[in-house]
Design goal:
Blueprint (H helix, E strand, L loop, with lengths): L1 H22 L4 H21 L1 H27 L6 H17 L5 H27 L8 H14 L3
Helix pairs in contact: 1-2, 1-6, 2-3, 2-4, 3-4, 4-6, 5-6
């Protein structure tokens, strides 16, 4: 079940990252579909796995903490981080909080956040040097690759 959720996340994530890269827009309906799909898998996991039920309060607390981090980061930046990017970051956080093994839930999320912002900073720096102006940058590809590093961390 976790493998299927991860495959669907990768498919959706590639689509969101590609569209954001070219259009600099993350559609709400796509995010809602992705969130509903991930929520369905989390609910199935909750109903079928007794251990997951005991871990659920910790997973919810981790999701809320990381979602609040992204919201605070958007507020600190003066809302220069797009609303779509913030919402996608929260969906990524939900995915990682629901999928990762509980032992590496926090480190996996932290690795994903760190790698996302490093990739985003590199993309921003490159774009600003290239265009000589501060234009919007697509953050979804960085968030997607950061989430992949968080998932890959669970294998090592």
């Amino acid at each position: 079940m976790t493998l299927l959720a991860t495959i669907l996340f990768v498919i959706y994530g590639l689509g969101i990252a590609t569209y954001d890269f070219f259009a600099q827009l993350i559609r709400n309906r796509v995010l809602l579909k992705l969130f509903a799909t991930l929520f369905f898998f989390a609910l199935l996991n909750f109903l079928s796995n007794p251990a997951f039920r005991y871990e659920t309060p910790f997973r919810i607390a981790c999701f809320i903490a990381f979602a609040m981090f992204h919201i605070i980061l958007a507020l600190i930046s003066g809302l220069r981080i797009g609303a779509g990017d913030t919402k996608y970051a929260m969906v990524v956080s939900f995915f990682l909080s629901a999928i990762l093994p509980v032992q590496i839930l926090v480190p996996g999320n932290l690795i994903a956040i760190f790698n996302s912002w490093v990739i985003g900073a590199i993309m921003t720096w490159r774009r600003w040097l290239q265009l000589k102006s501060q234009t919007a940058i697509p953050m979804a590809p960085a968030l997607f690759f950061g989430a992949l590093t968080g998932v890959l961390y669970s294998f090592f």
